[in-house]
Each structure stands twice: as structure tokens, then as C-alpha cells.
Write a structure and sequence with these properties.
67% of the residues lie in helices and 0% in strands. By secondary structure, it is an all-alpha fold. The longest helix has 50 residues. It is elongated and about 100 Å long. The protein starts with a helix and ends in a 10-residue tail after the last helix.
Length: 147
Amino acid sequence: MAWDEWERLKTSVAERHSAEMQLNQLPADRGGDGPSGGADGGCLKHSAQPWNRAAATAGSLRTSTDKAKTELATGHAGMAGGLTGLSSLAALKGVLHSWETRLSAVRDECGGLEPALRKVSKELVGVDHGVGAKTKAVQVPQGGDTQ
């Protein structure tokens, strides 16, 4: 083994042992204020706004689905009397029942989704602060020293 190659290997090993650990290509010494990120803005940040907006959308969809179901029933009311004897009456009733079932399922799903999304928005912020406090409590040796 040539002397130059030996020196190159020693330098390479020394660089690896002195390098700080990086997560997601971010330097380990970048500072910051916990898991939500630092001043550079390049970190994952949690916000309640998207969750609350999704919850509002679910609530709005629940209301509009319930309204559509009522309008569908109103539109089909009294049709049996005018269509007596037609073979399509049974098919129309089947379609009405099918749509009422689907709209009820969507309404119920959105009714359960809205409070769940609002709960997530509150919990994520709490978890974010809790994880930040726990990571600040971890003692990390400086300079890559291991003992």
C-alpha cells in the first residue's frame, strides 16, 4: 500500500468520525426551537388551520348531503300515484332507495369526520410541543465524542 493511499484512508476515517449526524439532509447544529423548526423555516411545522378547514368542509358536506336527501325525497313524493301500472315505478323506487342509502352513508361519515378532524388539530399541536420538550431534555455530547 502506497503512503499516499494510507494517508487518504486515515483522512477519510477521521472525517467520518468527526461528522455530525444529519437527519433529512439538515445539519445537526442548526439550532431551532424543537420539532416544529427553527428560524430557517425549513422544518416540518404543524398547524391547526388545514385540519380545521377540512373539518369545516366535512361539516358543510354533511349539511348539503342531508339537504339533497330531503330534496330527493320531496321530488319523488307523489310519483307513485301518477305512475301506477307502469313497469318503471319499481325501478324508480329502487333508485330512490339506493340514493337515500348512499346519501345517508355520506352524511353519517361526514358527521363523524368533522369532530375527529377538529380533535386532530388540537392533538397535533400538543404532541408537537411535547416532543420538543423531550428532545431538548436529551443530553448530546459535543464534537462527536463518545464515551
